[in-house]
Structures are given as C-alpha cells and as structure tokens.
Design brief:
CATH topology of the largest domain: Nucleotidyltransferase, domain 5
Strand order of the largest sheet: 5-4-3-2-1-6-8-7
Order of helices and strands: EEEHEEHEEHHEHHHEEEHHHHHEHHHEEH
Distance between the termini: 27 Å
Number of domains: 2
Strand content: 15-25%
CATH class of the largest domain: Alpha Beta
Radius of gyration: 22 Å
Shape: globular
Number of helices: 16
Number of strands: 14
Helix content: 25-40%
Length: 425
C-alpha cells in the first residue's frame, strides 16, 4: 500500500510517501520519498540587484538515497503543491509510474474543533467542517483544505484521510476544557482544544512500547518542545489536560510565541497605547517567546550559544523557558495524581540535553533521576533515566508523518475487511 502524507503549514509543506505491506512494522520505517518545501525564501539574485523580495520556494527532496535542494520560482502555494505531487512520477526523484499508484493520501489538519476525535475519511461534510473551523486556525486549516483540493484535481478519486491535531484532546474533561469566562463562550466555540495531538498520542504509544506495558495502565507527561511547545497529561491512554488552549498561543513559552500571559496586559495596552487586536496578535505570535526576550533568536541552539558567551538576555530567556516548563509540568502532574514516565520530543525536546536536564532536576522529589551521560548522548527513542529512577524519562523522535500514514493504513484495511464481510456468499 502506497500512502502519501501531506503535512501543510502556514509557510511550509512536508510530504512523505510510505510503501507498506500487509502488516505494520514495529518501528517507523523510512519513507521512500520525502519533500520539504519552504515558501517565501529570498531570491539569491536579489543580492546582485539590491532588492529584498522573498518569493522563491526552497524544495528539499530525498528519494532513492539521494538528497537534493533547489530554489523554484513558484507563484502560489497551490502551484507549489502541484509541483511537489508531480515530482512523485516525473524527474530524477520519481518513485512511482503515475498518480494511479498512490492508494491513499493522509493530511494533517490543525483544527478539527470538538466534533472530530478520530482520524476520518474526507467527505464533503468533513471539508465543510475544515473550512468552517478555519476561523480558529486561518493560516493552517485553509492551507490544509487547499491541499485536499489539489489532490482531488491531481490524483482523482484516491481516498483521502485527515488526522486532526485537536482530535487527541477532544475528550478532555469539561472541567479542563471550559474557560472560566461567561458560560455563553462555550456556545461560541470558545474552549480549550489543545494541539500537537498527533505527536502527543504517538509519543504516548511509543513510551508504552518502550516500557513493555499497556498504555491504559500508564500516567504520562509528554513534552512537545519545538518552535511551538505544549504538554499533555495522559492517563489510561487519554489526554486529560494540555497546555495549549483555544489557540496554539496558550501555555508554554515558545520560539516566537508568548504562551500564557495575564490578559490584563492586553487590555492595558489597548487602553493606554491604543494597540489594535491585529497588532497584539502579531506581537504575541511573532515577537515574543525566546526571540522577544533574548533579542537573539527563536532557535534554542542560538539562545544557548549566546548565553554561554555571556549574553544576559539570552540567559534570562533560557531560565524563563525552563521555569515555565517546570511550572506547567507540575500542573500536568496535578491532573494525573502521579507519574510513570516523562517524554521529551520535537526539535528542542529531542536535541537539547540542557533543557531536559534543567526541566528534570526539580522533580527529584518524585524519584525522577536523569542519567547525565545518556542525556548528553541521546539520539532519540530511548530511556535517559538513571537505573534507580522511580520515573522513566524518554526522548522520542517526533513522527507525525508516520503516525498519519499508520492511521491511513488502518482505516483502509478496516474498510477492506468490512467490505469482504458484507459480500461473503
């Protein structure tokens, strides 16, 4: 079964093709084809002309063991997606003879509201819901809907499947999901939705596998720490609390996002400095977090380098990031009533031993101990806790594309099995 996964962002597009047999492998396989596209890249020719336009698309392709990178002058995101799909069967990176070889296409959709708690087949009703929910995630849902439409036009009637980033959190207890404003907010769809659910769920399942235990028996805190950051408290395989809320702006300090701030700050700025909602949205989403405090970068690696060079603001940014991470882990513990394992994942979680060590050191009262050597040398998908630690600590590589591909495989296999049962003579 050839499964194509589209993982669209507001300024990027990730795509992978998996070729799976009759059973799922125990560990994530390497895709046979991968493309990563980044929109709005500066044209190198601008250096010669003195212009500063950013209209190119950077295309990184990996297929048949060969990696290439090109800059393409592509007019729109839709055209970029069409270009990417065509490269599956045209050019040096082609891995199929034509679109008819693709059996199913899976999409990551950021916002599924409270209506969708499982991966689902694309139907006109599902497309309408994605469009309706774009008001909550305008940059993402619209891009993802556009990807579904391009696949329909390019690949025809191939089955399409959507995995919602909010789905894993859709069954949050109402006490965790409802905001303490007027109850009428809930009628407007204002509630905690949570995000990064595809990876939180994947990491929980992987942690259970590494422990050799049933996920339903575990209490886990999963820490998705990348440019966007969120935690999830997972008990009996279900998300019972999470740090992101109505939007992906809530919760932890992030790369350029503030995370939770006193809402009175915003009303103060609106009253005294006449800041508009649009301006505050820009500040909170793009000028805050690690970048806003350090003044150096939204990249934790560059913040750490600046801190080690004596930059006081970078040091403050790191310490704030860790403080808020610890504080929110504590909140997740309160929702769980105990802890069997903690998981670090995504860019910072997988690659920053400094953050992992600092986050874990204040939880010694739980019997949690991180092995310094394992932490420093970790390459992912392993336990970095000390042998006598009462709590296991895992570093698990984020595998959103594989998690989506796996769900596509399961849905199609289940559909085929149902069809066979219905047509038995």
């Amino acid at each position: 079964m050839k499964i194509l996964v589209l993982n669209a962002g507001s300024s990027s597009q990730k795509s992978s093709l998996y070729d799976l047999g009759d059973s799922l492998p125990g560990r994530p396989p390497e895709p046979v084809w991968e493309v990563r596209m980044e929109y709005g890249v500066a044209d190198p020719r601008d250096q010669e002309t003195g212009e500063s336009s950013a209209h190119m698309t950077r295309v990184r392709t990996k297929a048949r063991g060969t990696a290439t990178e090109t800059l393409a002058d592509i007019g729109s995101r839709r055209e970029a997606t069409e270009h990417m799909l065509a490269s599956l069967w045209r050019g040096d990176a082609a891995v199929v003879s034509g679109p008819q070889e693709v059996d199913v296409v899976g999409h990551r959709v950021v916002h599924g509201g409270s209506d969708y708690s499982d991966t689902t087949r694309v139907t006109p009703e599902v497309k309408a819901a994605i469009k309706r929910l774009a008001v909550f995630a305008p940059l993402h849902n619209q891009a993802e809907l556009e990807g579904i439409e391009v696949v329909e036009q390019t690949l025809g009637a191939v089955p399409q499947v959507v995995a919602f980033d909010t789905a894993f959190h859709a069954r949050l207890p109402m006490s965790a999901a409802v905001y303490p404003g007027p109850y009428s907010w809930l009628d407007l769809g204002i509630r905690r939705y949570g995000f990064h659910g595809i990876n939180h769920q994947y990491c929980a399942e992987s942690a259970a596998q590494l422990l050799g235990k049933d996920l339903d028996s575990l209490r886990l805190v999963t820490c998705h720490l990348g440019n966007g950051c969120s935690l999830a408290a997972i008990r009996n395989g279900r998300s019972v609390d999470t740090t992101m809320g109505f939007t992906p702006l809530d919760g932890l300090m992030m790369g350029t996002r503030s995370g939770s701030v006193d809402p009175g700050i915003l009303t103060y700025l609106m009253r005294t400095m006449r800041r508009s909602g649009a301006r505050l949205d820009e500040v909170l989403n793009h000028e805050s977090g690690l970048l806003g405090i350090s003044g150096v970068s939204s990249d934790m690696r560059q913040v750490l380098a600046a801190m080690q060079a004596g930059n006081a603001r970078a040091k403050l940014a790191f310490e704030m990031f860790v403080h808020r991470l610890r504080r929110n882990i504590g909140a997740m513990l309160a929702s769980l009533g105990g802890l069997d394992a903690m998981v670090f994942t995504a860019g910072i979680g997988e690659n920053s031993p400094e953050v992992r060590a600092a986050a874990g050191e204040e939880f010694g009262f739980l019997g949690l101990k991180i092995d310094a050597a394992k932490n420093t040398q970790s390459r992912g998908d392993e336990d970095i806790a000390a042998p006598d630690s009462a709590v296991r600590v895992f570093v698990i590589r984020a595998q959103e594309d594989w998690a989506i591909a796996r769900e596509c495989w399961r849905l199609l296999r289940a559909a085929a099995s149902d069809y066979t049962e219905r047509h038995k003579s």
